[in-house]
Design goal:
Blueprint lengths: L1 H4 L1 E10 L2 E8 L10 E3 L3 H9 L3 E3 L11 H6 L6 E8 L2 E11 L6 H45 L6 H15 L4 H12 L16 H15 L9 H5 L21 H16 L22 H10 L7 H10 L9
Antiparallel strand pairs: 1-2, 1-6, 2-3, 4-5, 5-6
Length: 329
């Protein structure tokens, strides 16, 4: 807008409660404004935000709505001004303002063009705010679910976070892209969510225990922002040689994230002081004693590489895990 309409400076201000906050400020000395806010009722920008109407002025200082405070803050003199609202269906979310046309005064054509820019900006900003709100909701919901799992199964307190730590260590060594690492992290935190549907004290068979991965998948696939991690949760108990559950996938047919979690989970089960005592067929043994010990756990992972676990992932894990990491969570 600055370039095409040939203005000296401009800004985008967004409504935050009863104030207008400068989110972007370009040109002149306006960069000093970025990050500050003014009362929503102040000045011409405030009037535009309150009324949802355009304002185009040749001599701003002689307009009754002009507030000289911003000029005082920047040491910049506002002469001409063009300000339009950023509108969405819910109302005005901010304003787009240009000041000081470089050659002459702002025209009707400038106003129409800036209104078009404002419409596009409003759509983009509203979409971004929605995604941020959704992400914030997801973070808080995930925290609630992890806390609930820790409460529901005392033997698993801290388990999900430890699995996430060990898994991200492997992801770093694999140079996994950041978006993939974020997906892996979320899957780690909720890989045992299916246990919320199971009362472990009532479990009488391994089949009942094994149902947790399918139950977790069924829970997560219905929620849009968890749908991408649902398959990872479903397959985190598949075995590399194809004898795992629930689908007996083999080798690379198992999602890499699931193969990573399988190793991290087994390691935590063997080394955590409060490790759950019944783990189905997590390793070759039906049951493992808690706190099996760091070196014993490493040897068990190596012994099961190529059968239960992806041998490449086992190498990465065992070459990078350090005993000091056990006390970090």
């Amino acid at each position: 807008a600055l370039k095409i309409i040939e203005a000296e400076a401009g800004s985008i201000m967004l409504v935050e409660g009863d104030r207008l906050a400068f989110k972007i400020a370009k040109g002149g000395k306006s960069a000093n404004l970025q990050g500050i806010s003014i009362p929503k009722s102040a000045g011409i920008a405030g009037w535009v935000a309150e009324n949802g109407s355009n304002v185009r002025i040749e001599d701003a200082r002689n307009n009754s709505r002009f507030d000289p405070e911003i000029d005082t803050m920047t040491g910049y003199e506002t002469k001409s001004l063009l300000c339009v609202p950023l509108k969405v269906k819910a109302g005005t979310i901010g304003v787009l303002e240009l000041i000081n046309k470089q050659n002459g005064a702002f025209t009707q054509e400038d106003e129409e063009l800036l209104s078009y820019f404002a419409d596009q900006a409003a759509i983009s900003i509203a979409r971004t705010q929605f995604l941020e709100d959704q992400r914030n909701y997801e973070i808080h919901l995930t925290d609630i679910l992890v806390d609930t799992m820790d409460t529901h199964i005392h033997e698993k307190v801290g388990h999900s976070k430890r699995v996430a730590k060990y898994s991200l260590m492997m992801a770093d060594e694999l140079n996994m892209p950041e978006d993939k690492k974020r997906t892996l992290y979320r899957a780690c935190l909720l890989h045992d969510i299916g246990f919320l549907k199971i009362k472990l004290k009532d479990v009488t068979s391994k089949e009942q225990y094994k149902a947790h991965s399918q139950l977790g998948y069924n829970m997560l696939k219905l929620i849009n922002f968890y749908a991408d991690i649902a398959p990872i949760v479903l397959h985190h108990h598949e075995r590399y040689e194809g004898n795992g559950y629930p689908n007996e996938l083999m080798g690379d047919a198992i999602p890499v994230e699931s193969r990573i979690i399988a190793i991290a989970e087994a390691f935590d089960a063997m080394t955590s002081r409060d490790s759950y005592k019944y783990v189905g067929q997590m390793l070759d043994k039906a049951e493992l004693s808690p706190s099996a010990g760091f070196h014993h756990a490493i040897e068990e992972l190596k012994r099961n590489a190529g059968t239960q676990f992806d041998p490449k992932m086992v190498d990465i894990f065992t070459n990078n895990i350090d005993e000091s990491m056990l006390a970090e969570v």
